[in-house]
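quick one, 300 residues, struct below
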Amino acid sequence: MEKIIDCHFHLWDLKVNYYPWLTDRISENVTRINGDYRSIRKNYLIEDFRKDMAGVDVVAAVHLQADADPADSVSESAWLQSVADSEGNGMPQGFVARGDLRASDAAETIEQHCAFPNLRGLRAEMHPGLGAPADYNPLKDETWLRNLALLEKHKLVLEVRAASPEQTDDVISLIRAHPNINFVFPHLALSIWRDEEAIAAWKQTIRIYGELPNVYLKLSGYGLFGKEWTIDEVRPYVLDCIDAIGPDRLVCGSNYPVDGLAASYARIWETHSTLLDEAGCNAAERAKIFHDNGKRLYRL
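---
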């Protein structure tokens, strides 16, 4: 297999940072999406990741924030940079931090994250969030929008998290209003809603994303199809993404160790490879999706 940049993985050290979903009581939300996750409620360090990726030619990796303490997101960034600077031997080459764009001090927090040279983006919630007023929409919040604009200043990508289907029109308008910010949709840009109507809407939405030059989409998150997922289940979604977005703005990720609940690291990349072949991707297109696009997007 070609050289690979894993554009979506996680690490955590429960002795260094506080991860409520890994150390407090079992999260009903995480369980609903990923099933029984008790086996990963322990440290997952860079040496564990290297063991899992053995046999796959991973030349770089991008870490996505792992829901550490929401009151102190900068501590996770500091730890990740320390890992890259020491036992990681440069890995993670890039990381995406947690970003609460609703916060009045978001500008200051972003500046603190930017002190770490491997920072490449923020992962921000787009849905209202638990406990929010029924009429609250972050995409209509002046503070949220003002802080979003700071990403262009700092050359950061926005990793879109948990936009609900009814927000689709607002999300598309937001992307069009910020052509100099790259918006990255993980896990095939799928939501947890997968009824017939939702899937039809998703197909229309990714077609629009394909027309927007500042949208990237990740082939990742196959574990969201369940612990017994098969290539037959994920095939139609992946092929639709490849057809809609094209080879220039697709990247791949493992979502390890979360997706390790359902499959080995090697099997995830074998699935990516098989489906790229089935989509008719040639060698140059495969190289873009596996490596080149991630290198450009995350400035690696």
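The two ends are 20 Å apart (CA to CA).
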